[in-house]
Amino acid sequence: MKSILNKLTYGHYILTALKSGKELETRDRDYIAAGTVNWAGQVSFKPPMVAVSVGQKSDLNETINYSGRFTLHILGEQNRDMIEAFGSKSEIEDGTINGYAFSKKGGQVILDNTIGYVECVVKEYLHLGDHFVYFGEVVAQKSANDVGAVICTKEHPVEYREEIADA
Q1: Eight-class DSSP state of 160
Q2: Are 30 and 45 in contact (CB under 8 A)?
Q3: Burial tier of 81 (Cβ tally within 10 Å: 0-12, 13-18, 19+)
Q4: CA dist., res. 52 & res. 44, Å (int)
């Protein structure tokens, strides 16, 4: 029997984090992580804050903890293919993550061609169940001129699989 929790709707987002190699004693390259997340939302107006949930075994946790920052990218209809592409380990190569172009701005990884993003500084985090929940204060945000429709789980259902959350 399926849980009624499967009926809750969420958005589809890509979460990125970067820790500069210049700030790490054991690395000469930037440490970049990216992944698909569903559990994200605004939790405060003043100051503007969002919360995002990340599987406990994700590389995103380590990078967010190193940097104290993350960027939440909002996906539109034109970004449907990114949902699956960022559902597993990230491959960074020639200015792309999993084949999608990105730039570095203000010490963060910004994916090209999403409908917008919010950059956050971590204010608090909790380890609850099999996820970490990060609370980030929004320090920058950008929205594309032609935003279009955002993708939610109702229009693009993805079955939650524990092995993905633990990847």
Answers
A1: -
A2: no
A3: exposed
A4: 13
Return the amino acid letter for 128: L
Who contacts 19 (Cβ-Cβ below 8 Å, separation ≥6)?
Answer: 30, 31, 63, 66, 67
| Token pair for 2 | 């399926």
CB-CB contact of 101 with 114 (8 Å): no
How crowded is residue 49: how many other Cβ atoms within 10 Å of its Cβ? 18
Residue at 121: amino acid letter = V
- State pLDDT tens for residues 51-103: 999 998 888 998 999 899 999 999 988 898 999 999 888 899 888 999 999 99
Contact indicator for 73, 15 with CB cutoff of 8 Å: yes
Asked if residues 108 and 96 have their Cβ atoms less than 8 Å apart, the reply is: no
User: Domains in the chain, please, with CATH?
Assistant: 4-165 (2.30.110.10)
Q: What residues have CB less than 8 Å from 16, skipping those under 6 apart?
A: 32, 33, 34, 70, 71, 73, 97, 102, 108, 109, 110, 111
Q: Say what the pTM is.
A: 0.85
pLDDT tens digits for 93-134?
A: 888 999 999 999 988 999 998 999 999 999 999 999 999 999
